[in-house]
Amino acid sequence: DIQLTQSPSFLSASVGDRVTITCRASQGITSYLAWYQQKPGKAPKLLIYAASTLQSGVPSRFSGSGSGTEFTLTITSLQPEDFATYYCQQLNSYPRTFGQGTKVESK
Amino acid sequence: EVQLVESGGGLVKPGGSLRLSCAASGFPFSSYRMNWVRQAPGKGLEWVSSISTTSNYMYYADSVKGRFTISRDNAKNSLYLQMNSLRGDDAAVYYCARDDGSNWGLEYWGQGTLVTVSS
Predict the structure, then answer these.
(1) Considering CB atoms only, which of A44, A49, A94 is closest to B50?
(2) Which of B32, B45, B50 is the mutation pick for testing A, counting most A CBs within 10 A?
(3) Over the range A52-68, which residues count as b (16 or more CB within 10 Å of their CB) and which as e?
């Protein structure tokens, strides 16, 4: 099974900050990586798919990059509505594992 | 508008069974792979199971293999998860989620249904 490791697990940031979250896969997954945002009590929301493609309706301050085993999610200027937990997921093979999550909190 | 509405959650005793349903609307259900994802209280997301469009292929997490069965009824636009031999660590919110059509991500999610396992 492919393991995904996100770092950091917790991140304190301020509005306007540039935020970067890393997701590392235990083996190569080409570009079969998605990023999700989840707010408390809500279902996850797809932000980025195919490692770097922005889902329709997602603000352009979100971006994804990487391929193979190392991926990043970047928020260029953090907004109040971006405080949430972010997950990566690999869809290269089954089981379709998720990373453990990164909680972005207000500093 | 795409809608996924889960139902069937509730309180069940350890060793018991439960059947979750997901009613889909707003898209051609039979054309999309479907998934179940769960989230234990205060924990992260865990992929549980996926089913292909014509039910030819089903996949399961090791944690549920042999106890859970995913199925779908394309005529009824519905997805199901039969859960048997439930354990305490199966307690979670269970989400139904639709693939994006190209194996790149889970594009649409339901609101979730809560399963509590307790004696």
Answers:
(1) A94
(2) B45
(3) beebeebeeebbbebee
